[in-house]
Amino acid sequence: MESFSRVRSDRMESPKVQSSARLTEKSLGQLPQLKVNHLNQMTDDTGMLQHAIFTVPNRREGYTTDDNARALILAVLLEHMDKDRAREAGLPSAKSAGFYLSFLEHAFNPETGRFKNLLRYDRRWNETAGSEDCHGRALWALGTVLGRSQDQGCRGAAGRLFEFSLPAVLAFSSPRAWAYTLLGVQQYLTSYPGDRDAQKVRSALSRRLLEMYESIRRPDWKWFENVLAYGNARLPQCLLLAGAACSDDRMVSAGLESLDWLSTVQRCEINRHFVPIGSQGFYRQDGEKARFDQQPLEAAGAVSACLQAYRVTADCRWRTEAWAAFNWFLGDNDLQLPLYDSVTGGCRDGLHPDRANENQGAESTLSFLMALLEMRSLQEPEQKEILS
Q1: Residue 71 CB neighbours (<10 A)
Q2: For residue 288, is pLDDT > 80?
Q3: 284 phi, psi to nearest 5 deg
Q4: CA pair distance 171, 106, nearest whole angstrom
Q5: CA angle 184-101-204, nearest 5°?
Q6: 261 and 223 in contact (C-beta within 8 Å)?
Q7: Could you check whether the bond before residue 293 is cis, i.e. omega within 30 degrees of 0?
Q8: What angle (nearest 5°) sits at the alpha carbon of residue 303, between those of residues 297 and 305?
Q9: Please, which residues have CB within 8 angstroms of residue 127's CB and are 6 or more apart in sequence?
Q10: Rounded to an integer, what is the distance from CA 115 to the centroid of its chain?
Q11: Rounded CA gap, 293 and 336, in Å?
């Protein structure tokens, strides 16, 4: 047992490549074909299932509002694809946005003003209210519909739900819930820039994030909390987004500083590839940084945040950082193993010290597909306005 413990400890500190096929420069820096085979397989007549056993949907784990909100965002962005290319990729019909939106409508509890999150396969809810983060993700999706969708029926339903669910956020304490809400509110304001209530929410939440950052920040710890946990890059992304929209230089400066520090923390000291904070312990101030399990959610967030920094600064350094995070999906990671499955179009659930997690769940697959669409905005000028 001591021998096994010693080897495990060594592997955690110095991961060893498990693949005999080394990556080449040609295999990186190229965007793969967009496929939604696995996305379609994970969706039934209720919504998108949460987990998979390898590539097979796991009905026992049911559904979440979190994942159906992500699926709704993706469906709206896919509306803007060329029809011929969409058909070639096997994309779902235009009705898919309304399908995922229907799940969010069902999840909303008008008595509490909150979204439920966990729905069992027998269509029974596990709780009366989900997490604050779940609520924020739902608002992000609704704002995206209102800001980007061309489907008037979806816009009408989303507008009603957005109005009813937005007030609850002001009582939230989760900085990630604030960030997800800000992403949705900013999308909403692209179509309805004169909405004073939405402007007030944007101002209140972005100020809270800025004040949190300035109260915690230290010369060697330029962050919003005393721990780097999950969904990290969304926090500086939202400061950059709100700061740019409101011409607030102080907010933009804090967003760039915190993202620069995060990018340094999430970079391999030796090979310089992207290494997201591991979910097995995270990274507490004055503590040890968890290397594993590395999650697709973190890579997707880093892509979004770095592209937002690029839009704000026009500094090509941030394009390079975005590519580094995206290449993590393709195999430029600690084990040189691809997380993206080129056969199904899905994404493996994470990176362990010795292997990839072969299950292709909803969060992982949606994270990859959303990151892929964002990276396409670098190469396809017509997509820039869609994804910004």
Answers
A1: 28
A2: yes
A3: -90, 145
A4: 23
A5: 20
A6: yes
A7: yes
A8: 100
A9: 116, 117, 118
A10: 19
A11: 15
The dihedral formed by the CA atoms of 106, 103, 64 and 383, expressed in degrees to the nearest 10: -140
- C-beta atoms surrounding 373 within 10 Å: 22
pLDDT digits (tens, 9 = 90+) for 302-320: 999 999 999 999 999 999 9
Per-domain residue ranges of the chain? 32-387
Distance between CA atoms of residues 42 and 56, nearest Å: 8
Distance (Å, whole) CA 216 – CA 209 = 11
What three-state secondary structure class fits 171?
A: helix
Return the CATH class of domain 32-387.
mainly alpha
CA distance 301 to 206: 18
DSSP secondary structure, 198-216, as one string: HHHHHHHHHHHHHHHHHHH
Residues 6 or more apart whose CB falls under 8 angstroms from that of 69 comprise 100, 104, 134, 137, 138, 140, 141
* pLDDT tens readout for residues 111-158: 999 999 999 999 999 999 999 999 999 999 999 999 999 999 999 999
Number of Cβ atoms within 10 Å of the Cβ of 185: 32
Cβ-contact 219, 188 below 8 angstroms: no
What is the distance between the alpha carbons of residues 106 and 39, in angstroms, rounded to a whole number? Answer: 21
What whole-number distance in Å separates Cα of residue 355 and Cα of residue 348?
Answer: 11
How many alpha carbons lie under 13 Å from residue 293 in its C-beta half-sphere? 15
Distance CA 128, CA 126 (A): 7
- Token pair for residue 153? 């029926």
Whole-angstrom Cα distance, residue 128 to residue 22? 49
